[in-house]
Amino acid sequence: MLSHETIWNAIDTLAERHQLTPSGLARRAGLDPTAFNKSKRLGADGRLRWPSTESISKVLDATGATIDQFMGYIQQDDRQSRTDGDTLAAGSIPLLGFAQAGAGGFFDDGGFPAGQGWDVVEFPAAPSRKPGVYALEVQGDSMMPLYRDGDVLIVEPGAQVRRGDRVVLKTREGEVMAKVLLRQSARTIELMSLNPEHPNRSFDVHDVDWIARIIWASQ
Which intervals hold domain Peptidase S24/S26A/S26B/S26C (predicted)? Predict the structure, then answer.
């Protein structure tokens, strides 16, 4: 199945087959070296970014791969994903406390987990195998009554964010929060607080580092 994840995984596989990083593959194809970086695969507003057909054509020309081979990587990844979903009992994903999440070094500029200092939590579902999925541990009572101190939130930075979703947002100043997405436009992101004692928030998109959807929470 053609999806955002399987197409990007096919590009990563093509790079690996030619002993290249995604940046090296983009450079060989005459593209911006950052074009295939994970941080470029979704926008600051959480919307998915897809590789263009022109970019795919250029990497096929640069590597000598055929479109059939490229489609084979996509189909192989899709089959593996479905198999993993059927047989997986548990998976490990990185875990970080909210108090630490605002500090530098724990995320790349796309909101994916990076660097050292992460713990590990077992997540008993197939999403634990998705690239970039991580966990944040709630600290304090600012998210009551929905989330309590010690609850674990599973976050998928590559998932599309829609109105009404529970999300985690990080500002460029390093503030990290979990709220409900009320409205999102080309200029602003409006969030509703989970705790009625805390105000709703509104941000200019240029002040947002990243926003990601909460896909699961322990209770």
Answer: 94-215
Residue 58: per-residue pLDDT:
92
Q: Quote the pTM value.
A: 0.50
Give the whole-angstrom CA distance, residue 72 versus residue 70: 5
CA–CA separation, 152 vs 118, rounded Å? 14
4-87 carries CATH number 3.40.1440.60 = no
3-state SS assignment for residue 205: helix
Domain covering 91-217: architecture? Ribbon (2.10)
Residues 101, 42: Cα–Cα separation, whole Å: 20
Buried b (16+ CB within 10 A) or exposed e, 5-22: bbbbbbbbbbbeeeebeb
